[in-house]
Amino acid sequence: MSKAIILSAGQGSRLLPLTANRPKCLLPINGRSLLEWQIDMLLKAGFEDIVVVVGFCAEQVENLVAQNYPEQVRTLYNPFYQVADNMGTCWLVRNEMDRDFVLINGDTLFEQEVVETLLKGARHAITLATDHKDEAYDDDDMKVTLNGRQLLNVGKQIPAEHIHGESIGMLRFQGEGPALFREHLDREMRREASVKRWYLSTIAQLAQTGQVGIQSIKGLAWGEVDCQADLVNAEQLTANWFENELDAPACAD
């Protein structure tokens, strides 16, 4: 059974006032919320167990899930979403990391082929989905340094001469990967500073063991929704997916 964990506890303050009274994951994009696009793509890819971590305006997300996905999707509430970054969120749901799973940022929009490519191409205990830009990377991009398909480093402050791509906010954990991640989270969260850190800083540490790889999804459609310009791009991206659904032949009875 394929399992996914979506980190959707945050408000999305950079999108205020749109997120004043609803979380970023529920912002409408071509007739569906960001979260619905994520769930629908996962279901098409064959996922049967999807966990959504909620926080800001949790009831709104819980209601949507209960109404639209009562069998396939569960929610878990993070009461610390206002004081902890996503490393703390991952630690809170570590018991859900009990088998192979995919971890997805709540603001990563992706087509079905992205997650399918990650699943098929994962060769390491932990595998990041990555893309490569032809233009310069900006300050918010989670850059990666690679040795072939092995991850050497991931973070926002990597010097330009060492950037080989960027993480899209989707990872595959398999084999001993879930246990490795849980163990490192347990150690890191005993440090006060880790409450304000990203979980990818733990992945950067694990990369030093040689057990973290990457799978390129270059050429496939995805996007991050973090600011107003991203919303415009998301509308354009999902418009193509919506048209493809309309053009798809109906299933025979």
Q: Can you describe what's shown?
A:
There is one protein chain. With 253 residues, the protein is α/β, with parallel strands linked by helices. It has a single domain, classed as Spore Coat Polysaccharide Biosynthesis Protein SpsA, Chain A. It is built from 7 helices and 13 strands. Strands 1, 4, 5, 6, 8, 9, 10, 11 and 12 form a 9-stranded mixed β-sheet that branches. Strands 2-3 form a two-stranded antiparallel ribbon. A two-stranded antiparallel sheet has the order 7-13. It is globular.
Order of SSEs: EEEHEHEHEEHEEEEHHEEH
Number of helices: 7
The fraction of residues assigned to DSSP E strands is 25-35%
How many beta-strand elements? 13
Keywords:
globular, 253 residues, Spore Coat Polysaccharide Biosynthesis Protein SpsA, Chain A, 9-stranded mixed beta sheet
Which secondary structure elements does this structure contain, and how are they paired or packed?
Blueprint: E1 2-8, E2 28-29, E3 32-33, H1 34-44, E4 47-54, H2 58-68, E5 73-77, H3 86-92, E6 101-105, E7 108-110, H4 112-121, E8 126-131, E9 143-147, E10 150-155, E11 165-173, H5 177-188, H6 200-207, E12 212-216, E13 222-224, H7 228-247
Parallel strand pairs: 1-4, 1-6, 4-5, 8-12
Antiparallel strand pairs: 2-3, 6-11, 7-13, 8-11, 9-10, 9-11
Quick overview of this protein structure:
The protein has a single domain, classed as Alpha-Beta Complex (Spore Coat Polysaccharide Biosynthesis Protein SpsA, Chain A), CATH 3.90.550.10. With 253 residues, the protein is an alpha/beta fold.
